Amino acid sequence: MGANALGRAVFAPLFETAARMPNLARFIFLDPAAQAFYLDWETLAGDVVALLRAEAGRDPYDKALTDLIGELSTRSEAFRTWWAAHDVRLHRSGVKRLHHPTVGDLTLAYESLELVTDAGLRLNAYTAEPASPAEEALNLLANWTASPHERATSRPAE
After folding, report:
1. From CA 99, how far away is CA 93, in angstroms rounded?
2. Could you tell me the pLDDT band of residue 158, with boundaries at 50, 70 and 90?
3. Strand runs (DSSP E) across the chain, as ranges?
4. Which of 15, 19, 49, 138 lies deepest, with the highest CB count within 10 Å?
């Protein structure tokens, strides 16, 4: 999972608690911080299982995916229950509600785009409603993560 500086700041709990490369499914099902971070945890957890089920259908011999599903199945009762339902669906757009540990609650719309030249890769873009508290929070996080040069060049001319 890759992210730009703002993405890492927004999803800080996912990146901070990962002992290895961050993995959304591991975070959702194995890290207690996920339920505090994702305000709609149950919906998101079901969506993640359905997405994993779709990926497993595309490539049933993907060892890394098979290993992940085995790990989640043995360590999470919630995952095991949802996996057994055999729900398959893709999520290309929607809204995520987060409780960020520094800036509070965020409501972000998202679009998920498949990169056709790189099979299996997706680009997720998140946006906040203009002039909303979420946009103010994103601007604050963006300012914190910007380099000194970026902050200096982004100031309005006086």
Report:
1. 20
2. very low
3. 93-100, 104-114, 122-127
4. 49
